[in-house]
């Protein structure tokens, strides 16, 4: 990978780069050091997984990618070509259950907030073995809460993820699997990297889609599974104090699909074991993946 | 620069990387491809400049860096050492007027929201010739407005800058130099990469420091300059409609210090020329830099 002449020269004169404690000639640096994804988080990403040799929800992820790219006006890259790259690398891997991460950034350039439309986007993908943990589904997990300090366009799957990182670390410290965001008005939005569902009787509640949450692919399939098993769906945000009456809680996340939640912010839910509808949803979801 | 064994191996098995449209062996990738700064914007930065061979406000920038690092709990890097690196690279440059950009990220690792405290932070710095533009100070600039869609910790100078990028691009498209953020309540917060000041009579207004704006170093020196020239200072947010009565507007930014604003959201301010106090502030600021 060679650094573009534009970055080294432009109308430029003098540039000194330092990586860690060493002065490095700018022309020896990988273009990754000039990636707008690094300077600004100026890019979008997707995470997919495969089940038994088949990528799950590829069309949906590519469609969401197209929406994210359009929302921040990254052009000059064809999502159909990206779809092909994902399939090609997955076929090369020859491993049935993998996690696929990729991002598209606006490109590498000298640091300047505004961008030049001639920039060529950067694509990076990493496919790795999926770490399965059957205990999660069997026993369920605890979740903590964290203030939703994110920006106002959480519908864009961007690389600006520092609040999510801080929320997850806070959860880990509290011995929890995930952090659930609470907005300024005290309502639940979603998890730091998951959709969140509450079951009251035969009704599944979840936050409605808006600019405040990610249009989660897993959310879509969980709601489809819920309809299939005859549950009523209500897309409405609730507050933690309404969880006193909740019967079951669950998370939806690409790499692990449905995960039962048995503890919320220190409070055990019912008998502290995965609920019956959650178990049905896990089974119903599994049918989508075979 | 060698990729850490931890990234390549860990408890890992199979990993396939793709850069642009090429499958690349993971072990050949620069650690920059695994920088948490790239995946999450998990890092902080500073921009400094020198005037005639002397770095301006180095202590203040290093102090703010320490605050940013502490706020997101990046440890394992000594700000005194960073101060030394900045000075060393600047001395190597031997150019009197430069722009100094550097960032510190939490380090390179396999992508996972939570972090390991043993991670070694990454440091990257680029020093380049400063592009001076005397026209900006002589004629002033136009600014546009943009919704403040940023996260709720704008006091941290983090790499999560996508809203700032979108705001700047919007301004550029409108023929403006800078975008001024308006929050949900309609109040001015600050510029996308600048502090913003309004002068009414002999009073300078600017947004008070809080988690909603950056503790700008230039802001601090502009207020000091304002006090020196006998202006009253009021730290209070105002709304655009209050600008009907404004006498002068100005921006403060590290690389260009004081910039007169002669047009706000399409409305010309007074006679459309830099105001008298703004000119005094430019002169007063210059005294700090010699």
Low-confidence spans of chain A:
none
Task: Give the distance, in angstroms, between the N- and C-terminal Cα atoms of chain A.
Answer: 39 Å
Largest interface comes to: A-B, 73 and 73 residues
Largest sheet of chain A: 9 strands, mixed
**Into which percentage range does the β-strand content of chain A fall?**
25-35%
How many beta-strand elements of chain A? 15
Rg estimate of chain A, integer Å: 21 Å
Oligomeric composition of the shown chains: homodimer
Q: What shape does the CA trace of chain A take?
A: globular
Q: What structural category arises from helix and sheet content of chain A? A: alpha+beta
Average pLDDT number of chain A: 95
User: What is the helix fraction of residues of chain A, given as a range?
Assistant: 25-40%
Number of helices of chain A: 8
What series of H and E elements makes up the topology of chain A?
Answer: HEEHEEHHEEHEHEEEEHEEEEH
């Amino acid at each position: 990978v060679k650094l573009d002449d534009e970055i080294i020269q432009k109308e430029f004169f003098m540039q000194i780069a330092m990586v860690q404690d060493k002065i490095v000639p700018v022309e020896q640096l990988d273009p990754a050091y000039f990636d707008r994804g690094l300077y600004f988080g100026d890019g979008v990403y997707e995470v997919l997984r495969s089940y038994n040799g088949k990528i799950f929800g590829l069309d949906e992820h590519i469609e969401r990618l197209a929406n994210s790219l359009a929302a921040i006006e990254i052009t000059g890259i064809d999502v159909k070509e990206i779809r092909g790259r994902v399939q090609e690398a997955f076929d090369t891997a020859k491993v049935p259950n993998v996690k696929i991460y990729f991002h598209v950034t606006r490109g590498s350039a000298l640091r300047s907030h505004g961008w030049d439309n001639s920039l060529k986007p950067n694509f990076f993908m990493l496919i790795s073995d999926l770490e399965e943990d059957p205990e999660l589904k069997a026993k369920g997990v605890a979740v903590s809460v964290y203030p939703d300090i994110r920006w106002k366009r959480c519908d864009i799957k961007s690389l600006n993820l520092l609040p999510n990182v801080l929320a997850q670390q806070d959860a880990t410290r509290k011995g929890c699997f995930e952090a659930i965001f609470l907005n300024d008005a005290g309502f639940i939005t979603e998890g730091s990297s998951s959709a969140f569902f509450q079951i009251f009787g035969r009704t599944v509640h979840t936050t409605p889609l808006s600019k405040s949450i990610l249009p989660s692919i897993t959310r879509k399939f969980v709601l489809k599974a819920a309809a299939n098993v005859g549950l009523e769906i209500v897309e409405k945000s609730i507050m933690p104090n309404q969880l006193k009456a909740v019967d079951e809680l669950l998370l939806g996340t690409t790499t692990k699909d449905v995960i039962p939640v048995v503890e919320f912010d220190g409070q055990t839910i019912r008998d502290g074991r995965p609920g019956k509808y959650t178990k049905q949803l896990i089974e119903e979801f599994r049918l989508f993946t075979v």
